[in-house]
Amino acid sequence: METSISTLSVKQQGRKWQWWHTAGTAVVTIALLVLLFPYLTPEATQVKVHDFLGTVFTTEILFYIAAGLCAQLVDGALGMAYGATSSSLLLGMGVSPAVSSASVHVAEVFTTGASGFSHFKLGNVNKKLFLCLLIPGMTGAITGAYLLADRINGDLIKPYISIYLLVLGVIVIRKAFRRHQRKARTKRLAPLAFAGGFMDAVGGGGWGPIVTATLLSKGRAVHYTIGSVNAAEFFISLSSAITFLFFTGISSWQGIIGLVTGGVIASPFAALLVRKIKRKPLMILVGTLIILLSLRTLIGLLG
Predict the structure, then answer these.
(1) Distances from the Cα of 92 to the Cαs of 17, 65, 120, 128, 209, in angstroms?
(2) What is the DSSP string of 88-127?
(3) pLDDT in tens, 264-298
(4) CB atoms within 10 A of CB 203
């Protein structure tokens, strides 16, 4: 009896700590963004802080918060689509593609950090897989961000990567209906991580769809794959963000702060969803999402 009460107390304390962690992280994140603003924009020396706050904290920020929350729930639970969702939102609001990509990657530094931490706490991370993805992914992200900022047009590569993802989505759904899924040894993780990091920076998204979909198509455990890929994504996003900041700077602070706040709030719940949802429906959701995103990109390019 005492053991049961003690266990219940520990669980309640853990949940209470999780809520405090979420609220605290959101507050600290917003504070850091406000403090960093004067150092990241050349014009900021002539702009008063209260003018900046008045511009950012309008009713429109609630829309960004809601979008960030939804995008992070999808990304944390399925391992993909935060960048695609957020980029679509910013582009729909009239933000230019270059500024949109930079803004999303800066926001992802905070949201993926919170998501990765939650996955670590819940035991969703395979440390060996995480380490194999880390350095190649960061290298690919830095390379892609540099090339996009100074050398190439990322839209030229999108049709090919969309076709690749479309095929992977079909494979993932097909494997979801197999009763006995035998895990295949995943070779060449470094090239896979490099490609994922590169396309994430160049195309505004792709780390989750490319890396998660490929690993799941090989029969790897769903929650370990999603948790490990999400944990590594923080470092990939950080690498991209620093590179983009160096070349382009930031102008859409309202979008960044809104996306970050919504994403940080959703992160713990997204990590819990991975452990609660069974393998088959989760695989079907992942595969369907990959196919829909790929078709959306192809239709947009053809139209």
Answers:
(1) 37, 15, 34, 39, 22
(2) HHHHHTT--HHHHHHHHHHHHHHHHHHHHHHHHHTT---H
(3) 788 777 767 766 777 678 778 777 877 887 787 77
(4) 23
Number of Cβ within 10 Å of residue 231's Cβ equals 25
The pair of structure tokens assigned to 238 is 């950080």
Q: What is the phi-psi region of residue 81: left when phi exceeds 0, alpha when psi lies from -120 to 50, beta otherwise?
A: left
Output 208-211 pairs: Cβ under 8 A, ≥24 positions apart.
Answer: 208/75, 208/78, 208/79, 208/80, 208/81, 208/82, 208/83, 208/233, 209/80, 209/81, 209/165, 209/168, 209/290, 209/293, 210/161, 210/164, 210/165, 211/133, 211/137
Q: Which of 130, 139, 76, 140 is nearest to 108 (CA)?
A: 76
Which tokens hold the place of 84?
Answer: 């695609």
Render pLDDT for 5-23 as a digit per residue (tens, 0 to 9).
Answer: 444 444 554 455 455 455 5
Structure-block tokens of residue 46: 């002539």
| Structure token pair of residue 44 | 């900021």
Split at pLDDT 50, 70, 90, the class of 158 is low
Place of tokens 């933000």: 95
When pLDDT is averaged across residues 191-212 and rounded to a whole number, the result is 83
215: closest CA among 171, 270, 160, 271? 171
Q: In one letter, which amino acid is 80?
A: M
